[in-house]
Amino acid sequence: MSLFNVYPLFDITPVKAKDVYVYDENNTEYLDLYGGHAVISIGHSHPKYVKNISDQVAKMGFYSNSIQNPMQVELANKLEEISGCKDYELFLCNSGAEANENALKLASFHTDKKKVIAFKNGFHGRTSAAVAATDNPKIIAPINAQQEVEILELGDLVGLEKALAKNDVCAVIIEFIQGVGGLDESTTAFYETADKLCKKYNTCFIADEVQSGFGRTGDFFAFQKFNVTPDIISIAKGMGNGFPVGGILIHPSIKASFGLLGTTFGGNHLACAATLTVLDVIKEEKLMENVKDISTYFIEKSKEIPQLKNLKGRGLMLGLEFDFPIAELRKNLIYNHKIFTGSAKNPNLIRILPSLTVQKKHIDVFFEALKSELNS
Ligand SMILES: Cc1ncc(COP(=O)(O)O)c(C=O)c1O
C-alpha cells in the first residue's frame, strides 16, 4: 500500500531529536526553528517528558472517559494557575481542529444559533465547521460548504456589528495572531470592541490559541495582551510537545450537561502526562521569560538584514517578510545550512516557530545563514 500523497515532502528523514535539533539517519544535525509547526514547546525529547511519558505508559497508557481520571483534574488546576484563566472549565480532545470543532459546536448549543463569523486569512483546521471557518476555498469540500460562515476583513468592526445584529451568529472565531495566514494582527480597539459586541449580541467569542497558546507569544495566551474575556479558548500544538492533544477552556457562563461533548481518546492518561510535563517545564524553566528575551534579541538581530521588509508576530511566533517569494530561500536554508523554518499562506514570509527553549546562539546561527543566502 502506498501513502495517500497529500504532502509535498522535503527529502529529509529525521530519526532522532534533542531540544532544538533534529538528526537524520546519517546523523546530520538540523537546527529546528519550525518546531514541527509550532508543536515543540519544551524541546525535543526533554528528559522529564521522556521519563514521565515512559513511566505513565508502563503503568497505564489509556482508559476511556467513563472512569475517574485524577490526572485531568490536576491538569485543569495547573492550567488555571499558569494561564490565569480563573474559573474556566476544561474539555480535552486530540487536535487543534477538534478543539475548534468542539468550540463551534458548543457555541451553537449555547446560543441556539448557527452562523459563524471568521476572518480573512484565518486558519482553524480541516474538520467540518473548523474548515468552513477557514479562509481557504481549496480545502473546503462541498460537504463542508453547507456551514453558514461569513468571512470578514480582519479589523472590520462595521461589518462585524452588521452581521451580529442579525442575531443568527453563534460564534466569532479568531486567531489573535494569525499563524498559517502569515502573522497578521489587528488593533487593540478591534479585539476589545469585537469582544464587547459578542457579549452584546449573545455570540460566543472564540480565541483560537491552537498555535499562539502555551507561552509561545511570551504571554500564556496571545489574547492576554488585550482586555478581553473569550467565551471559549481552543488549545493544542505546544500543549503536548508532540503528543497529540487538544482542548477547550470554557467560560463558566456556558453550562455542561452529560453527553453534550464527548471523545474516546481525549484526555487519556498519556496525553495528560505529556501536558502536565509541558506545564511543569514551562514554569520550572521560566520559558515564557525566555520567549520574551529571545524575541527581543531576534528583533534586534533582524535589523541587520536590509532586505527585510517587515518583521511580524510576537514572542517566538515570528514572520520575516520579504518583497520576493521565499520558497527558494527556505529550501537553501534547509539544504545549505541545515536550518528548518516555516512557510505561510503569504508566499513572501518565513515563519519562525522554535521550541521555547531556543537560545541566542541559535538565533545567531540563523542570521548568519540568512545573510549568507541573501548576499549570495
Ligand atoms: C490557529 C490554528 N488553529 C487550528 C489548527 C488546526 O490544528 P490541527 O492541525 O492540530 O488540527 C491550526 C494548525 O495549524 C492552527 O494553526
From TrEMBL:
PROSITE patterns assigned to the protein according to its UniProt record, in alphabetical order: AA_TRANSFER_CLASS_3
Keyword DNA-binding belongs to the record: no
Cofactor: pyridoxal 5'-phosphate
Superkingdom, taxonomy of origin: Bacteria
UniProt entry tagged with the keyword Transferase: yes
Keywords: Aminotransferase, Pyridoxal phosphate, Transferase
A GO term, aspect molecular function: pyridoxal phosphate binding
Family statement drawn from the similarity comment of this UniProt entry: Belongs to the class-III pyridoxal-phosphate-dependent aminotransferase family.
Protein name: Aspartate aminotransferase family protein
Lineage of the species this protein comes from: Bacteria, Pseudomonadati, Bacteroidota, Flavobacteriia, Flavobacteriales
